[in-house]
Every structure is written in C-alpha cells, then in structure tokens.
Amino acid sequence: MKYGKTALCILSAAGLIITILLTCVDHFAFQRSFFEKQYQKLNTAQDMNMSKQDLMRATDVLLDYLKDERDDISLQVVAAEEKVEMFNERETAHMVDVKNLYQGAMQVRFYAFLITLVAFALLFWKARKDLLFALCYRYVQCAIAAVVIAGVLGLWIMSDFTAFWTNFHRLFFSNDLWLLNPATDRMIQMFPEPFFFAMVSRIVLAFAIVFLTLFGLSLYYLKHVMKKQKGAVYAQDHIGK
C-alpha cells in the first residue's frame, strides 16, 4: 500500500488545490457588486452612452447565460438615445465559447472534488494510520509545485497582462471571435483590460489566502509531529505506508 498511499495523497492534495482555485473563480466572477464598482471606477456607462440600469441589465444577462439560466444574450437597450440590440452576432458567437469554457471549468471542479473525496475515503479505509501526517506532507509538496507555477504566471501577469491575456485566449479558444473591436463591440467596452486585471487580481488574492492558510497549517502540523517524534526518520517511515 506504500505507493498506493503516496498516489492517493497526491491526488487528494492536487484535487483540493484545483477545487479551491475554480471555486474562487466561480465565486468572484459572478459578484454583481464587483461589476458595479468597476463600472463606476472606469466610467463605463458614460463612455458607452447608456444608463447604469441598462448596463447592469446587460451584465445580468451575460452572467445568467454563463450559468445556463437563460438560452441567449439577446437584450435591447437605449444607447446614445437610440433603442438597439446590446450585443452583435460576433459577440453572441463568442459568448457560446465563453459559456462552454466556464461550464467545462465547473466540470473540472466537480471531478477534482470527487477525486479528492474518493482518494480520502480510500485512504481512511485502507491506510488510516498516520493519515493526517501523510496528507499534510503531500499537500505541502503539491503546494510548493503550485507556488512555482503560480509565481511564474504572477510575474507574467504583473509585467505584461496584455500578453498573458492574449495567450490565455489563444490557448482556450479555437477561433478569433475573442478579438473584439472597442469601436463597435459593446462587450469589450464593458470589459476592457483594466476590468479583467482587477477580476484576476481578486481571484488570485482569494485563492492565495485559502491556499496559503492550508499550507501554513500543514507545515505547522508537520513540524509539531516531527519535533515530538524522530524528525526526518519519522517522516520517511510514515508518509508512504
């Protein structure tokens, strides 16, 4: 069971990290108050020559569509004193891709959480001895790997968010519908680069708080146990059994 316990602990830790990250995405990407604050900060409604009420209606339509609570993003608004369709055909087609991406991410979260639960259940059933120590040990290992990856991405985001955002779209979208025109496409007027930078920053910060809290607690527990026992010898003897 030695290698089986190691694999299950790693799966449990990695699944938990993925679950936390995608839960942060799901939670903070749909906070209506965040959209309102960003619109006010960026003077979005004024720049788009429309009312704040219509802007928030359009936002609600997009969020409901992503959550599969409506079938389309069709909406009429008053812009520049003229009643018009809020989103054009290109924006509508792009939102199909965005919805598929979001729904796919939520499926990944579901399976990651399921893997975490199943792995933990098997560990609790077959390898209960020193289980908490083994789980903390593997979580710290997975967390260090995640920190390295996140650190590289973080430096990239902070130094050149435009390049990061462009390559993100090229990776996850198979077409160029995401290349919207600020002069004609209201969706990009609603969500310019500073908006997405603020949202990504919030998600990263929330994830970091939860992630690092678990990391700190795991380290504390490992040091506490190893101090009372036989240090590295104890760790080597118990994490894989």
Radius of gyration: 23 Å
Query: Distance between the terminal alpha carbons, to the nearest Å?
Result: 6 Å
The helix/strand series, from N terminus to C terminus, equals HHHHEEHHHHHH
Shape: elongated
Q: Note the beta-strand portion.
A: under 5%
Secondary structure: helix percent: over 70%
| Low-confidence parts | none
Q: Quaternary arrangement of the chains shown?
A: single chain
What is the count of helical runs? 10
Strand-pairing-aware structural class = mainly alpha
Beta strands, count: 2
Strands side by side in the biggest sheet: 1-2
Largest sheet: 2 strands, antiparallel
List keywords for this structure.
241 residues; mainly alpha; two-stranded antiparallel sheet; 2 strands; 76% helix; elongated
Write the SSE topology.
Elements: H1 2-28, H2 32-42, H3 44-47, H4 52-66, E1 76-79, E2 82-85, H5 89-126, H6 131-159, H7 161-172, H8 186-190, H9 193-228, H10 232-238
Concise synopsis of the structure shown:
This protein is 76% helix and 3% strand.
Molecular structure report:
With 241 residues, the chain is mainly α. The chain contains ten helices and two strands. A two-stranded antiparallel sheet has the order 1-2. A hairpin with a 2-residue loop joins strand 1 and strand 2. Helix 1 packs antiparallel against helix 9. The protein is elongated and about 75 Å long. It starts with a helix and ends with a helix.
